[in-house]
Amino acid sequence: MAMPVTRHYTAADLATMPDDGQRYEIIRGELLVSPSPSGWHQVMVSRLFAALLPHLQAGGLADQLITAPADITFADDTVLEPDLFVADTSGVLKSGKWTDVTTLFLVIEVISPSTARTDRTLKRAEYQRHGIPQYWIVDGDQRHVEVWTPDAQAPVIECDRLVWRHPLLNDECVIDLVKLFNFG
């Protein structure tokens, strides 16, 4: 029985993808396509941005908080686009190239039915493999956040509050999850 030939995608291939509102990412050559996010998803990303920004502003690091679309390139065949992340942006601010973002401190994905499996498996494994200190998977249906660290075999599930500290800052950022998930 003949096996189908599968294409191995690269960063160059991503540059040729249509601007059709979908999110295109690749993990080890596998193309991932996600539909445009829902309104709820975008509100959640905005709320997380608003919760993290004052913490980073106080430390003079506001430019390190980035929302999609923004590519994180781990290899020529692995390019991810997190919903929200905190990274050393000094390189990209000089060059304008996302490939100059090499140090990530926090990556956040807000899951939806179409992305939950990928966010929890493929993307999580890549973030862990690359030593991202914290990867948050925000689950609005369950009203919790899965916190993954590089060596974790299972996430820490946070339902009440998230505590995170940027490695260059002394203070912690505390996010009230009850308030975050309250849509009235």
* Total beta strand runs: 12
Globally, the shape reads globular
Fraction in helix:
25-40%
Order of SSEs, N→C? HEEHEEEEHEHEEEEEH
Assembly state here? Answer: single chain
Task: Please state roughly what percent of the residues sit in beta strands, choosing from under 5%, 5-15%, 15-25%, 25-35%, 35-45% or over 45%.
Answer: 25-35%
Strand order of the largest sheet: 3-6-7-8-9-10
Number of distinct helices: 5
Q: What is the overall pLDDT average?
A: 90
Radius of gyration: 17 Å
Low-pLDDT residue intervals, each spanning 5 or more residues: none
Distance between the termini: 56 Å
Query: Which structural class matches the secondary elements?
Result: alpha+beta
The main pleated sheet reads as: 6 strands, mixed
Task: Describe this structure as you would to a colleague.
- This protein is 26% helix and 28% strand.
- It is built from five helices and twelve strands.
- A six-stranded mixed beta sheet has the order 3-6-7-8-9-10, sandwiched between helices. It has a two-stranded antiparallel sheet with strand order 1-2.
- The longest helix has 20 residues, at 39-58.
- The N and C termini lie far apart (56 Å).
- The relative contact order is 0.14.
- The model has no long low-confidence stretch (mean pLDDT 90).
